[in-house]
Automatic annotation (TrEMBL):
Domain of life: Bacteria
A GO cellular component annotation in the UniProt record: cytosol
Protein name: NADPH--hemoprotein reductase
The species this protein was found in: Candidatus Ornithobacterium hominis
Keyword Nucleus found: no
């Protein structure tokens, strides 16, 4: 059901884009009119406390006969009077204090008047008014659908204003701006729609409620004794004067919600005419839509108009990428290699398109389409799926029909497949849709060519590894750099000063102490990118800063290219690498309560952090296979109190336990510390991280919270692999 909101949001915007652009552009111009008006004839602005009873006697002395007094939306006083006409020829602005005539009330600014007419009807009369009205209603629907799309993308209403998942700038800005301009945009659209409905006579604003009185008008009163005349002048919009003070004559007082007829002789109310709720709604909508008389509403109108213009640009840019058709050179019935992509904002599509181009240049019979466009491929030999995950583990908009179409067309075919998922590891549903696709294909007759890979934050380095593996399996020379620009980083030399190796009975683990040849800036938690050979891709190791040296800890893998290269190095030799800043995993400067959780070689950065922050309240929870494994790190820990460090050994029979066991036992204490502002840093295996997060999440839910809430607040940080 959620994809309907996305589809509605897209097509409503596409259909109305041109008209929305015209309305937003003219609305932007008209938003400045209140500022222009507010600067003109400022001397005519009335005092908030000034009453009609105070003003009238002075006006009667100054002018021969007053016909009408008016207070406009900008609180400027104008009159139409005999005496004034002779001098100025019509309605004039006057100074409410000195009663000096300032200027004749001018006609509306010709430029703003033309823009206003265009804004209301596109200069197409009745047809234009309908186009404007329908576009306004579309904007209301676009706003509502945008709310639901954003809520779904953020994985729930409670996360609506939380940090946005990593994505490209166009998508990020579209979502970010949309969230904070939501209210102004909705009211611009809603009030515009209401005004259209009144112009189209869907509502009757002329209906009134009239109450007639029969007062005693035999006693004459002074103007200052008229009850309604002692109200502040700002409450009146217009006062129409009688020809004389006879008992049969009356003043007509126009207020915001009613019209009063006041006997000119006695000051008694003869009639009250109350406006309908429809008219009040129209007037209020007009005020919100134009900002007339206000100084703050036009600011929101300006921002709203600019936002609409940007939404049109960014939305069309995203849509063009999403709807972009590939240049398939082979028909579906002839294709042997099929690439299907699922992409919400176009990022995954770019990876798929570059892979497609590389295969085209290698003269492969390749076909590319969205996952929704899966059809019959009778000659299919290989299927490559590249997809992101939307919201809480769901398919992107152009992939939600994949399961249905897979079962319909190719479920019973025999072919090889490869799956590449794109996502962000900090979310529990990391690459979930790609994993669902893997499970679906695993149950079919298809065979997995390469184990599915799940790429964090659109990493080109991770994608390059899959690219090289796939091209190698298929015996194709496909240079990755020809399709992706990779930034070359200068490599530095590091001398090996110490090397310590142990075998704990299960695996070989070793530490290296490195001294940079050049002066470099680095902190515990940064990453050291090491190259096993000049043309190999870098491998990242988390570092500890120990006495201005770099400590890295490595587990030797039997077929590991980089770990074996490092294992073979000797003290005194050098290696080529560079420091990659990892500020998101630095020890916070002002944090007084910190829990560090690690397993295996993941303890490395924490060794440096604990040495550099001995005064802070830091607790280390670390897990190893056995005591021999831990002996590689013990000398780096400055343990001042037993409670500073908790160790777990998963292969020691008498004290066997895992990090997760301690977290589960101490969950209440850890949760309370988080709620009180404490922080947690986790380094080690992803399996351990997810287990810890699951335990914390279960316990935080008792408090109505989520562990991922604290990830977004940066109170839980991780660097896991």
């Amino acid at each position: 059901m959620n994809w309907y909101w996305r589809l509605a949001h897209l097509w409503l915007a596409l259909v109305s884009a041109v008209f929305l652009f015209l309305l937003a552009a003219t609305g932007f111009i008209l938003s400045f009119e209140p500022f222009v008006e507010k600067t003109q004839f400022a001397e005519a602005q009335i005092d908030d406390q000034q009453t009609l009873a105070e003003l009238l006697p002075r006006l009667n002395e100054k002018f021969d006969e007053i016909l009408e007094i008016q207070v406009d939306a900008y609180q400027r006083l104008s009159i139409e009077a005999l005496g004034a006409e002779e001098k100025m020829g019509g309605k004039v602005y006057i100074n409410p204090n000195s009663l000096e005539i300032i200027a004749e009330v001018p006609k509306s600014n010709a430029f703003f008047q033309w823009v206003r007419q265009f804004h209301r009807s596109f200069m197409l009369k009745s047809t234009g008014r309908w186009l404007v009205g329908i576009t306004s209603i579309f904007l209301v629907l676009i706003s509502i659908s945008g709310i639901f799309v954003t809520a779904k993308r953020q994985q729930g209403w409670g996360n609506f204003f939380k940090p946005i998942k990593p994505t490209n700038f166009t998508t990020f800005s579209h979502i970010f701006l949309g969230r904070y301009m939501l209210i102004p945009l909705f009211f611009i659209a809603l009030t515009g729609s209401i005004l259209f409905l009144f112009r189209a006579e869907f509502f009757n604003e002329n209906k009134t409620e009239i109450i007639t009185f029969s007062p005693d008008n035999s006693t004459e009163k002074d103007l200052k004794d008229f009850a309604y005349f002692n109200q502040a002048l700002k409450n009146f919009q217009k006062i129409e004067f009688p020809f004389s003070a006879d008992p049969d004559e009356f003043y007509t007082l126009h207020l915001a919600d009613k019209v009063l007829e006041v006997n000119a002789f006695s000051g008694e109310i003869q009639q009250e005419i109350y406006f309908s709720n429809h008219k009040k709604l129209k007037d209020f909508s007009y005020f919100l839509h134009t900002g007339e008389g206000s100084w703050w509403i036009p600011i929101f109108l300006i921002l709203g108009s600019l936002s609409i213009l940007y939404f049109i640009y960014s939305g069309l840019k995203m849509a063009s990428k999403r709807l972009m058709k590939s240049k398939n050179q082979w028909l579906a019935e002839d294709a042997e290699i099929v690439i299907l992509y699922g992409s919400e904002n176009g990022a995954t599509q770019r990876f798929a398109m570059n892979f497609f181009k590389a295969l085209v240049e290698k003269k492969q019979k390749v076909f590319i389409a969205t996952m929704n466009e899966l059809q019959n491929f009778p000659k299919l030999k290989q299927l490559i799926i590249m997809t992101s995950t939307y919201g809480d583990g769901e398919a992107p908009n152009n992939a939600h029909k994949f399961t249905e179409k897979f079962q319909q067309y190719i479920q019973n075919q025999t072919f090889e497949y490869s799956i590449v998922g794109f996502g962000a590891r900090e979310y529990a549903q990391f690459c979930q849709f790609a994993k669902d696709c893997d499970a679906l294909l695993n149950k079919s007759k298809a065979n997995c060519l390469i184990p599915s890979v799940y790429i964090h934050n659109q990493s080109k380095i991770e994608f390059q590894s899959w690219w090289n593996l796939w091209s190698g399996k298929n015996h194709l020379e496909m240079p990755f750099q020809a399709y992706f620009k990779m930034k070359e980083i200068e490599r530095k030399s590091f001398k090996i000063e110490q090397k310590e190796v142990i075998n704990d009975g299960f695996s070989t683990v070793f530490n290296l102490i490195l001294n940079p040849i050049d002066t470099l800036s680095f902190e515990s938690g940064d990453l050291l990118a090491i190259f096993a050979s000049p043309n190999a891709r870098e491998r990242y190791y988390s570092i500890a800063k120990i006495n201005h040296r770099i400590l890295i800890s490595i587990k030797l893998h039997e077929k590991g290219l980089c770990s074996r290269y490092l294992y073979q190095l000797k003290v005194g030799e050098t290696l080529q690498a560079y420091i990659k800043k990892n500020e998101a995993f630095h020890f916070p400067k002002h944090q007084k309560s910190m829990l560090l959780i690690a397993n295996g070689t993941g303890i490395t950065p924490f060794l440096g952090m604990m040495q550099q922050n001995p005064a802070n309240k830091v607790h280390l929870l670390a897990g190893f296979r056995n005591i021999k494994h831990f002996s590689l790190y013990g000398k780096y820990l400055l343990i001042t109190e037993d409670e500073n460090v908790t160790l777990c050994f998963s292969r020691e029979k008498e004290v066997k336990r895992y990090v997760q066991d301690v977290v589960n036992q101490q969950a209440d204490k850890i949760v309370l510390n988080l709620i009180n502002g404490g922080e947690i840093m986790v380094c080690g295996s992803l399996k351990m991280y997810y287990s810890v997060m699951k335990i914390l999440d279960q316990n935080l839910k008792k408090q109505g919270l989520s562990a991922y809430h604290f990830v977004e607040k940066k109170q839980i940080k991780h660097d896991c692999y």
